[in-house]
Amino acid sequence: MLKTRCVQRASLRIPRAPPSCRQVSNKARPQTRAATHPYAQRRQQHFVRSIATVTVLWATASAWSWYNGHALFREVHAEEPPPEQELKFEMPRRQAASKEENRDIISSQHLQVKRSWENPGVYAWGSNKGKVVAPDSTETYVKSARRIPFFDGKILRDLKLASTFGAAIDEKGDLLQWGTAFSTESAQPTHTLRGKNLATLAISRDRIIALSKSGTVYSIPVSQKEQRTGPKPASTSWIPFWGGSNDDISYRIRTPNSLGYSERVTDIVSGLEHALILTSSGRVFSFASGTEHYPRKGQLGIPGLTWETRPAGPFDLPHEITTLKGFPITKIAAGDNHSLVCDSAGRAFSFGDNTTGQLGFPFNPDSLYVDAPSLLPTQRLYAGTGQEATVKNVYAGGNTSFFTVEASKPNASARDPARVTADTWALGYGLTGQLGTGRWVHNQSSPVKVPAFSSLFEYDEKTNSIVPIRLAYLSIGQSHAAAVLDNIASLDVKSNRKHTENDINWGQDILFWGNNEFYQIGSGKRSNVATPTYIQPLDQAAEAERAASIAGGKAEKEQHRFQITPRNKVKVNGRNISMQQRVECGREVTAVYSAV
Ligand SMILES: *[C@@H]1O[C@H](CO)[C@@H](O)[C@H](O)[C@H]1NC(C)=O
Ligand SMILES: *[C@@H]1O[C@H](CO)[C@@H](O)[C@H](O)[C@H]1NC(C)=O
Ligand SMILES: *[C@@H]1O[C@H](CO)[C@@H](O)[C@H](O)[C@H]1NC(C)=O
Ligand SMILES: *[C@@H]1O[C@H](CO)[C@@H](O)[C@H](O)[C@H]1NC(C)=O
Ligand SMILES: *[C@@H]1O[C@H](CO)[C@@H](O)[C@H](O)[C@H]1NC(C)=O
Ligand SMILES: *[C@@H]1O[C@H](CO)[C@@H](O)[C@H](O)[C@H]1NC(C)=O
């Protein structure tokens, strides 16, 4: 029975979707492991292309139990009856005119990948109070994915959203802005800062921080009025009118001026009032990125620095976080009022606001803020497992923090091979579900594992081995979040003879969770979600067309799920480009955009 379901699943249909991923624990669940060991399945899989798709189904038992909230850390066996699924193997269907048409009909996933290449652009949903998600509409909410027509056919370098403004960098590196906090006159995205070859964006409460390809950091007011009336820099271009630069808008350059000879800025992030700058030599700088308040919760990471004690000169000059010297920092993250960084040796540090435990170290119950970077005790989380833990990445949003860890046994043997486990941990505020752990808590100051993204494995056909499923990335909004899994995708099925009509493309799994007050999860419902969940495919028109082409016009029983297309070389309007879909969870809004 299991075998049949596996084949069905992989070749044809996506089950209605509780969270996808199977937890294969190394030790704790021998029974589960035996029942689902990928090699056992492999013997019979003719259609199965990747265990990734198969494991999803085995996951149902365990996933379902945490869905229902009563089995967070309980042992779950595959023998448990899975929820009822009415999977029909061969629905009668219209004769397909070609292999490619057959692929579209049989697979929502194949169609989604294809549509993402044929039809680049931006889908958005959530709060529309600032006309960010649907600039032409007066609706308060947009409940499920909708295109922003302005971006049809466009590919972007970056995109960041708040509930009252949006900012994007187009393919040429120019800044686009829209939303009521930008302007109440022009509804459509409008070019503002141009000619700077921008690459990366971050947003504070009222400013846009942008990083150019050459490593220059710009701080630009969100408001168009302020851009027009504020102080303008003297033109930095030594050839007048060169490069279409428009220095008629107000902005400040905030590149640290103490960079080494070949050192340059490689990343920027911003909270509501503070921004972090990372350089190629692993140094971190911070500066005040808002104009309403000076950061006063320690989020700058510079002990003793306040409005009163700040050095002479502009209030928003970058300062190096010198206490991090000796720790080559590789990743930076900013929540609204706190910061997280990790270094090349896999250590994580946090600083700033701790009112909801988002810094992760129970140390002094009286101190609400911590203004010096402090080491997160991550090794302790793996005490007794014999594993060594390395923090790979850090993420933050609102008053919640996340970090990903890879753990493995240092002394592997043939009997006990050094399998790498990839885990995701969450901490901080979780009252509306944004920790993704299935719990609703005020302050989670000791990190908890997010079961949906921890200890996942899949079978890699190319290397004949079991590999951990890592996260491709997390996008943490102010109160909701999304995770893209780095599962093995299939992107090379084209119209050529070597593929059969049952070979299909599929993308990567993406799950959403957290606060849903503004419909920012995209589930179409408004209830908060404490366990990562799938949403429907974004292009509902294409889905409907596909469903209609199944003979008999019977409405499909199954719900398909949105999968996001990872990076691939594709032809768009006659050009070869490397493109991917990316998700951006902002403040009360979400977008999926086509990115270079
Ligand atoms: C951070 O906040 C948590 C929860 O409020 C508290 O238990 C912990 O002691 C605080 N840590 C510090 C260093 O203040
Ligand atoms: C944490 O953030 C949420 C919204 O993002 C907010 O409602 C809540 O008040 C914050 N908690 C604290 C203690 O600031
Ligand atoms: C961050 O601090 C500002 C005030 O400086 C406050 O308005 C906001 O609620 C805080 N956000 C969180 C998530 O704690
Ligand atoms: C690994 O082996 C070395 C010596 O062979 C030993 O010193 C070390 O404690 C071992 N580590 C673990 C985690 O078992
Ligand atoms: C942390 O949360 C608990 C219950 O969720 C609450 O009793 C406690 O007051 C909170 N502590 C802080 C510092 O907010
Ligand atoms: C795009 O790539 C294909 C091969 O992948 C090549 O044949 C074609 O010439 C390229 N087209 C352009 C415009 O570069």
TrEMBL record:
Pfam families: RCC1_2. The chain crosses the membrane at residues 47-67. RCC repeats lie at residues 282-345, 346-407, 422-487. One of its GO terms (cellular component) is mitochondrial inner membrane. Residues 17-38 are annotated as: Disordered. InterPro entries: MitoProcess-Associated, RCC1/BLIP-II, Reg_chr_condens. GO terms for biological process: mitochondrial respiratory chain complex III assembly. Keywords: Membrane, Transmembrane, Transmembrane helix. The keyword Transmembrane applies. Coiled coil: none annotated. This is Mitochondrial protein-like protein Fmp25. It comes from Lophiotrema nucula.
